[in-house]
Design brief:
- This protein is of the alpha+beta class.
- Helix content is 30%, strand content 24%.
- Strands 1, 2, 9, 10, 11, 12, 19 and 20 form an 8-stranded mixed beta sheet that branches. Strands 13, 15, 16, 17 and 18 form a 5-stranded antiparallel beta sheet that branches.
- Helix 2 (61-80) crosses helix 8 (352-370).
- The protein starts with a strand and ends in a 27-residue tail after the last helix.
- The model has no long low-confidence stretch (mean pLDDT 94).
- The structure holds flavin-adenine dinucleotide (FAD).
- Residues 9-15, 32-35, 40-43, 45-49, 51, 170-172, 204-208, 212, 228, 272, 315-317, 348-354 line the site of flavin-adenine dinucleotide.
Length: 497
């Protein structure tokens, strides 16, 4: 049976950040995920905000790892060619009561070491974001935005480049200690049961981290799913938002309140709502919340019209606090009691995306403490590989001259597959070549953004089907949206079409 030094369960932003850190050393490493690709869990369903650190109790894991993650994010994203922008953020008080809470947030931020904070009156806020209503604001210039899918995938690709083995469609169902220092992990795969052995386990299973913990014999924690729903707005409104706008969160709230954020590509997000639910897999959106977000959005952005709402989605927070308690608990990052060959990373809700680089480092140090090995040759960035285009932004965000240069280099940059996002054939091909698990439409979308624009795939999906069918020789009946459970086509309407 295959034996690894370390197996990480979960290929979200946390598991991949840990894998990348550990890939600096001479470990044999595998990452197992039940889904068909990296980042199909919570990591692709969030606001994409790199938080400043004002919201977390001083001295907590969330505060310390947020501050360290924020500080590391810019250079990490540069190394991995991931879009990141330091937009700044305004947290706005709408009443005297909220003003008092805002000052407390500033004090908390100071205790956490958040740089450059500034209180603002309404006139100064109006200069930053014309038309914004509020009595006082707290400006945090270190807040930023990142493409969360691109970050999660780039961490995985970089770990993979340094020898980490990724096993997708491997749902871990049983863990047994076979010797003092060895575990057997059994997974369900489309081909049947599969098993491997490892000296160490790192549990980064997000929403299911408590289930994996229980499989390891650790029963301390329960995760409660708390759903956040969003609306995505058309890029037409890109210029309407200069920075991120948040309300002052309520004292017992389990989220940070409905806010307006931008994606690095220029869409505005309204959300997320905040609702405990029973089903850990239920990422649906509901008409009640959508109506609420619509009316909230129209108040915050008066020029908003119904046709600007292009898509909705939701993400689940893996909360360690039950519904009747609400609020937040700290991240749990610890060795299993009496078994330090198992490390659990549990309850990684917000700011998990921000903290990921720092969690990666912390967990890698914990693992190395138990299983020390030597360093190996390692580079922080990607080498240039012909036909693999890694750029900090999609080609559509480059100037005309830069794009002409790209087309001179490879004419496929001039062949547009996705008209809404102006994604070229060269970028789709690069995404396909970079995938080291099953090829899925969602995987292509998460890597280079076709199917993310106004038409939601109406124009580009048939073109992508054509590429998969032609260049890649994958018959239509095997085209998958996210994996074997979401096959897209059952056959052809007419012969050859
Ligand atoms: C609505 C919302 C908004 C948020 N906004 C922000 C934000 O703006 N900024 C920020 O910093 N953070 C934010 N977060 C938090 C952030 O998204 C998460 O903390 C982070 O993505 C957690 O990553 P993860 O790797 O732990 O989880 P995941 O990405 O879910 O990864 C866990 C992986 O484990 C796999 N897995 C589970 N069970 C098994 C099994 N049995 N076998 C094999 N694999 C398994 C899953 O398939 C999954 O891929 C937000 C979260 C939500 C829900």
């Amino acid at each position: 049976m295959e034996l690894f030094d370390i197996v990480i369960i979960g290929a979200g932003v946390i598991g991949n950040a840990v894998a990348r850190e550990l890939s600096r050393k001479n470990y044999t490493l595998a990452v197992l995920d039940k889904e068909a690709d990296a980042g199909f869990g919570i990591s692709s369903r969030n606001s994409g905000v790199v938080h400043s650190g004002i919201h977390y109790t001083p001295g907590s894991n969330r505060a310390i790892l947020n501050i360290a993650g924020n500080a590391a994010m810019e250079s990490l994203c540069r190394d991995l060619s991931v879009p990141f922008i330091r937009t700044g953020k305004l947290t706005i008080a709408a009443s005297q009561e909220e003003q008092a809470a805002l000052h407390e947030l500033k004090e908390q931020g100071e205790a956490n070491g958040v740089p450059g904070m500034e209180m603002m009156d309404s006139a100064t806020m109006d200069q930053l974001q014309p038309g914004i209503a509020g009595t006082e604001g707290l400006y945090t210039p270190s807040t930023g935005i990142v493409n969360p899918m691109a970050l999660t995938i780039a961490l995985a690709e970089h770990a993979h480049l340094h020898g980490v083995s990724y096993r997708f469609l491997h749902k871990v169902i049983r863990i047994t200690q076979v010797q003092d220092s060895r575990f057997q992990i059994e997974s369900e795969t489309p081909q049947g049961r599969s098993a491997l052995e490892t000296r160490m386990i790192i549990n980064c299973a997000g929403m299911h981290a408590d289930t994996i913990a229980k499989l390891c014999g650790y029963h301390q924690h329960t995760i409660y799913p708390c759903r956040g729903e969003y609306y995505v707005l058309d890029k037409r409104l890109d210029q309407s938002l200069n920075l991120l706008i948040y309300p002052v969160p309520g004292t017992h709230s389990s989220g940070l309140g409905i806010h307006l954020t931008k994606t690095v590509e220029g869409n505005i997000l309204i959300g997320p709502s905040n609702e405990y639910i029973a089903d850990r897999m239920d990422c649906s959106t509901t008409s009640e919340i959508m109506e609420m977000l619509k009316s909230e959005g129209k108040t915050l952005l008066p020029t908003l019209v119904t046709s600007d709402f292009i898509r909705s989605f939701s993400g689940l927070r893996p909360k360690l606090t039950p519904p009747d308690v609400g609020g937040f608990d700290d991240f749990v990052i610890r060795y299993q009691p009496a078994c330090d060959s198992v490390i659990h990373v549990l309850g990684i809700e917000s700011p998990g995306l921000t903290a990921a680089p720092a969690i990666g480092k912390k967990v890698a140090e914990m693992a190395h403490h138990i299983l020390p090995v030597s360093e190996k040759p390692w580079r922080p960035d990607f080498p240039d590989i012909p036909g693999i285009y890694r750029r900090p932004y999609p080609a559509s965000m480059y100037s005309l001259d830069e794009r002409k240069a790209l087309v001179d280099q490879d004419p496929d940059f001039g062949s547009i597959i996705c008209r809404c996002e102006e994604i070229s054939l060269a970028e789709v091909r690069s995404a396909l070549k970079r995938m080291f698990g099953p090829l899925t439409y969602a995987g292509i979308k998460n890597r280079c953004r076709p199917m993310s624009g106004r038409c939601q795939g109406g124009f580009c999906m048939p073109r992508i089907a054509h590429i998969l069918n032609g260049e890649w020789g994958i018959p239509h009946e095997n085209h998958m949206l996210k994996g074997p459970d979401s096959v897209l086509y059952t056959g052809l309407l007419r012969d050859g079409e």
